[in-house]
Amino acid sequence: MAFDYEYSPSRDRGSCSTIIVGKAASATGHVLVAHNEDDYDCVIQVHKVPRIRHQAGETIRFADAKAVIPQVEETYAYQWSDFRCEGGISFADCFVNEWGVAVVSNSCRPCKLGEEQPADMGIGYGLRRLVAERARSAREAVEIAATLIEEYGYISSRTYQFCDKDEAWIFQVPTGHRYVAKRIPDDHVYMIPNHFTIHDVDFSDAGHKNYYFSADLVDYAMKNGWYQPAVPGDFSDFDFARVYQDGPDKMHNLIRARQTWPMLLGERPEEWRPFSHKAPRKYSVAELRQILSSHFNGTEDDYNNGYERNPHVDRDPCPLCNTMTAESSVIEFAEEPALTCIWRAAPKPCISPFVPWYVGAKRAPKGYQWLPVTVSQATHFAPGVEELHIDVSKAFWAFRVLQYFTEFDYKGTHEVIRKSVDELEAAWDAEQPLLREKCRSLLAEAPELAEELLSSYTEAQAQKAWDWAWKMVEQLGEDRIMKNSSTRVLPPENV
Length: 495
Known about the structure:
Layout: E1 5-6, E2 17-21, E3 32-38, E4 43-49, E5 52-53, E6 59-60, E7 69-70, E8 74-75, E9 78-84, E10 94-97, E11 102-107, H1 126-134, H2 138-152, E12 158-163, E13 168-173, E14 180-183, E15 188-192, E16 211-213, H3 217-223, H4 240-244, E17 249-250, H5 251-265, E18 277-278, H6 285-292, E19 325-332, E20 341-345, E21 355-358, H7 373-378, H8 395-408, H9 410-445, H10 447-476
Helix pairs in contact: 1-2, 8-9, 8-10, 9-10
């Protein structure tokens, strides 16, 4: 189906991108998730939040919404990428929990607003955290999210991706108490920029083999005048994306879709806004890392002209790796949840290595976390001003300073950095089979030793990447960047 699109300035839009590979289309035999989180002016710390038992009657409330939610008896452990910026940010963080359940998300073109307005809703940022704390599978994540939205309502429009090793579910929610979720077929590949992608809904799927949906999804649309079936009582022509999205898609979404789908499929599909496509081959972790780093070189949307221009300065057009990209991750699920590996690059995957972080690690590497978990949670929407200034004791700033350096001369620095990044990633790729084999043996015989091995390994590789970043800064000309250590984090075009 051909959807309309419009050109609009990029300043008022999101640009996160997600690619998901079903387990039958994956070289690993498990689901793969690739995600670029695109947000401005953020510093990022990474937490490993432990399991926590809670007191009877305990509740939780998040700063961007008004719902007071009863806490469960016990919450699960999870790895949390905590995006911190002035005034707080409600939509960026990535979670992967101890059961191997991942939560990433994408903003969507604004939804239509009916009788239920954002001010009346009770759930926002907290949805992803609550799912990470409570879900033991992707399917259970959908059920938890649906229950919360039905009871408390959602304050904006968004797409969540709930994934585990076997299933990947796309959960799309407009403002209000409604939602729809669809499972990606095992032999399909999925890609989303920033618009709703669920079109058809099988309302006969009472057993939820492939769909979940709110009971009044159609009735609410009809009540507000957004949809009328061609044949009364026959909802086979209901298209969720068309019905609930407010206005046409934007050009920056078209560009990312029309360039990413050919990379995935080997040809340009007739339909640029599908839910998913049958995969023509099996995809590897390395291939997804490469795609997330793309600036659409050599295509009609390659506005850099062989890096004569900096691909991170202008907001339009919008490649996968762009001005706003703050963290990139490829989640490689494993049969054993502890061996799920988050290949993490920050801020930009074209100039930062994807470092292996294991979910089974019991602590965050030193320097990647500077606040206790409880303080980070309490101050997420009001971080300290000092966090937004360069601090060489925090790992984040090594990679940010390296990014600043490349912005002055991307063409002259990119090739050197990229060669070094490729060497690092190749060495890490070669290490993983032996490491995982050793950990599998330990998980069966001495789980605590497996946990310590994963912790020490993750710490060592995170430290190696940190040291590498400063080495690259020194090699390429540190003095050009570190003239003023009080420099605030700024968009690249202002550096």
